[in-house]
């Protein structure tokens, strides 16, 4: 527990400093985290990061991860990132034929899904921080909602939890805890908004709070399902007492794309 607390304090402080710095430093920092998260996924699948499939997976993830401004500086042809990613998928499908299925359709699916999951998740985190004037507050707001949801769900679940939320994936989570986490997030989020009104209206703020709280919990369950599927306790051991990067950022990288796709931020 002591190690977990020390790691949590140091890790949180370091991340907050990077968010405050913003710019290319934050983007580079997040790119490193995303690369570590991708390696964790590869190891879950028992794929060597320096193998052909591992390298293709990391490069595909980076294609989706890098900010568009970075991409435009190195790409002289008029192709978008999505168009190149689609081309990569078609090439991977071609490999299933050329390798006579030693490189399988399932492995193509792994490369595509893991690249989208990690690449887009961290990409939208970078995009959010880069929003002029409000980017810093938006990142802190979403982080606060996710942390409050986790804490609220934990304490309410311990005190009142009786009905399991999804026992096959996460046996300790309860429906009561989940609802308690959402309520706690709403209270804390409204207090934050009353001091720093970063949204156009309270209704928008409430929508962001509820979406971030609900999908943050779903993001946690998605990663739990991944770990159960691959029979691992933690995604990695980069953070002593906390596991891997995916263990700590699973909710955030799931929430950020959804908030952007719903045009809430």
Automatic annotation (TrEMBL):
This is Phosphatidate cytidylyltransferase. GO terms for biological process: CDP-diacylglycerol biosynthetic process. It is a multi-pass membrane protein. The chain crosses the membrane at residues 6-35, 47-68, 74-96, 108-126, 138-156, 177-196, 202-222. InterPro entries: PC_trans. One of its GO terms (cellular component) is plasma membrane. It catalyses: a 1,2-diacyl-sn-glycero-3-phosphate + CTP + H(+) = a CDP-1,2-diacyl-sn-glycerol + diphosphate. It comes from Halalkalibacter akibai (strain ATCC 43226 / DSM 21942 / CIP 109018 / JCM 9157 / 1139) (Bacillus akibai). Pathway: Phospholipid metabolism; CDP-diacylglycerol biosynthesis; CDP-diacylglycerol from sn-glycerol 3-phosphate: step 3/3; Lipid metabolism. It is an enzyme of class 2 (transferase). It is found in: Cell membrane. Its EC number is 2.7.7.41. Keywords: Cell membrane, Lipid biosynthesis, Lipid metabolism, Membrane, Nucleotidyltransferase, Phospholipid biosynthesis, Phospholipid metabolism, Transferase, Transmembrane, Transmembrane helix. Belongs to the CDS family. One of its GO terms (molecular function) is phosphatidate cytidylyltransferase activity.
């Amino acid at each position: 527990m002591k190690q977990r607390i020390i790691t949590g304090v140091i890790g949180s402080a370091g991340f907050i400093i990077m968010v405050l710095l913003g710019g290319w430093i934050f983007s580079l920092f997040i790119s490193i985290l995303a690369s570590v998260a991708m390696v964790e996924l590869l190891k879950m699948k028992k794929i060597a990061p320096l193998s052909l499939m591992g390298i293709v997976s990391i490069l595909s993830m980076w294609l989706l991860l890098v900010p568009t401004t970075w991409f435009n500086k190195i790409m002289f042809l008029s192709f978008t990132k999505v168009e190149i990613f689609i081309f990569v998928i078609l090439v991977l499908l071609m490999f299933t034929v050329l390798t006579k299925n030693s490189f399988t359709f399932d492995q193509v699916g792994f490369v595509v899904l893991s690249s989208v999951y990690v690449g887009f998740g961290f990409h939208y985190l970078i995009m959010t921080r880069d929003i002029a004037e409000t980017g810093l507050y938006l990142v802190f707001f979403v982080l606060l909602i996710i942390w409050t949801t986790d804490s609220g769900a934990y304490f309410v679940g311990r005190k009142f939890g009786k009905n399991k939320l999804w026992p096959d994936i996460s046996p300790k989570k309860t429906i009561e805890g989940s609802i308690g986490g959402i309520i706690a997030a709403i209270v804390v989020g409204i207090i934050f908004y009353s001091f720093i009104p970063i949204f156009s209206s309270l209704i928008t703020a409430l929508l962001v709070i509820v979406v971030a709280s609900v999908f943050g919990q779903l993001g946690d369950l998605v990663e739990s399902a991944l770990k159960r599927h691959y029979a691992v306790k933690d995604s990695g051991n980069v953070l002593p007492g906390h596991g891997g990067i995916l263990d700590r950022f699973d909710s955030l990288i799931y929430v950020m794309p959804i908030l952007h796709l719903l045009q809430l931020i």
